[in-house]
Amino acid sequence: MAAIEDDATTGAPPSPTPILAFFDVDNTLMRGASVYHLGWAAWKRGYVTWRDIARFTWKQMRFIAVGENHRHQLAVRDRALELIEGHTIDELESLAIETYEKRIEKLLLPETVGLAQDHLDKGHEVWLITATPEACARVIAERLGLTGAIGTRIRDVDGVFTGELHGHVMHGTEKALAAKDLAVAKHARLEDCWAYSDSRNDIPLLELAGNRVVVNPDAALKRYARARNWPMITAGAASIRAQRRRVRREARAVARDAR
Predict the structure, then answer these.
(1) E strand or H helix at 101, and its extent?
(2) What is the DSSP secondary-structure string of 133-181?
(3) 54-95, pLDDT tens digit by residue?
(4) Distance CA 125, CA 196 (A)
(5) Tens digits of per-residue pLDDT, 95-108?
(6) In this structure, are residues 151 and 128 in contact, taking their beta carbons and an 8 Å threshold?
(7) 49, 103, 122, 177: least buried by Cβ within 10 Å?
(8) Of the residues 26, 118, 202, 218, which is catalytic?
(9) Which of 7, 6, 75 is nearest to 36 (CA)?
(10) Is 24 a catalytic residue?
(11) How far apart are CA 114 and CA 120, in angstroms?
C-alpha cells in the first residue's frame, strides 16, 4: 500500500511515557494460523507425520472460514507441544526462520503491517501477542522491525524442550494479563495503548487498551464490537486507510527521551 500523508495531527503533547500497540498475529497480521505453517516446516524436517499435516490442513481451512475457538486452540497447543518435545531451542529457532521465509512472509497483510509501522513512526512500541510459540512470533517481529513478541513459551531443560508449557498458553485472558504486566513494567498508561485483534477470545486484551480496533473480526467479535461502537476494519478495504489516518492523526506521539 502506498504511503498516506497525514491530514491532521493530534493536539495532545508528546507522551512522556511509552505507548504500546499490541497486535494479534493469526488473521490479524497474517492470513491463517502461523502454527499451521510451523507444522508444515516441521513435517519437511521429519518432525511430524503426514497424518499430522492432514489434521493441520483441516484446522487451517476451518480457521480461515469461521475463526478460532477454544477447542481448536487446545488441539493446536497439544500438537505444538508434541511437535517440539525432544528438540532443541536452536532447532525451533531455525524452524521458525524457515517458516517465516518460505510461508509466513507471503501471507502477511500489508495493510495491517502498515498500521504497525504507523505506530512505530509515532514512537510507539509495537508488540506481537499470540498463542503461537514465542520463538516463531519473535522471528516475525524481528523481520518486521517491531519491538518484540509475547507468545506461548515451552519449558526446556538444558536447551532441550520437555513438551510442557512454561506458564500458560498465550490466549484469552492470558494475553490481557501479559499485556498489562508489560505496560506496568514499562510505566505505560493503558489508556494511551492500542490493541488489534480478529478474535472474540481477545476481548479481554481489547478491553484493556484505551484504543481498541477489531480487524477482520469473527462473527462473535463483530457483534460485540458493533454493540460498543468499536472501530472495525477489514483488510484491503477503505476502513484500513481510514484507520491508518486515524493513528497518524489521533495517536499521541512519544517524546524522544521516553523511548
Answers:
(1) none
(2) EHHHHHHHHHHHT-SEEEEE-EEEETTEEEEEESS--S-THHHHHHHHH
(3) 555 555 455 445 555 555 555 555 555 566 777 788 888 888
(4) 14
(5) 889 999 999 999 99
(6) yes
(7) 49
(8) 26
(9) 75
(10) yes
(11) 10
